[in-house]
Amino acid sequence: MALYEHVFIARQDLSNAQAEGLIEHLGQILKDNGGSVIGTEYWGLKTLAYKINKGRKGHYGFLRSDAPAPAVAEMERLARIHDDVMRVLTIRVDEHEEGPTAVIQAKNARDERPRRDRDDRPRRDRDN
Fold first, then answer.
1. 3-state SS class at 53
2. pTM listed for this prediction
3. Gyration radius from the chain CA atoms
4. Could you identify which of 12, 15, 50, 113 might form a hypothetical disulfide with 57, taking C-beta atoms 3.0 to 4.6 angstroms apart as the criterion?
5. At 102, is the pLDDT very low, low, confident or very high (cuts 50, 70, 90)?
6. Residues 6+ apart with CB under 8 A from 78
């Protein structure tokens, strides 16, 4: 079997739970067809570079899998038919990277930064 990475963009009017459920549903399709899901990530609601189906935002999901080609083809076919999925991208990789993806790492780094309150900024003196 081959290793794959899948990225999905779902409609913006879904809730976070529905978007995560959609990722699990697509992973289950792979499992039902003889593959295995190695990991899933929900990247969140992000602004798109251009409008897709009149929408400016989308829920991004990521899936790592080890599956035969017919299982991946069936999952992509069902994802393209699904009303909530706007785009699907599947890439075959030689090996999966360990740990979280760069998207999650950047999000975690952004969350861990110390925040300054507005009152901590130096004020400029006004002559008026």
1. coil
2. 0.79
3. 19
4. 12
5. confident
6. 26, 29
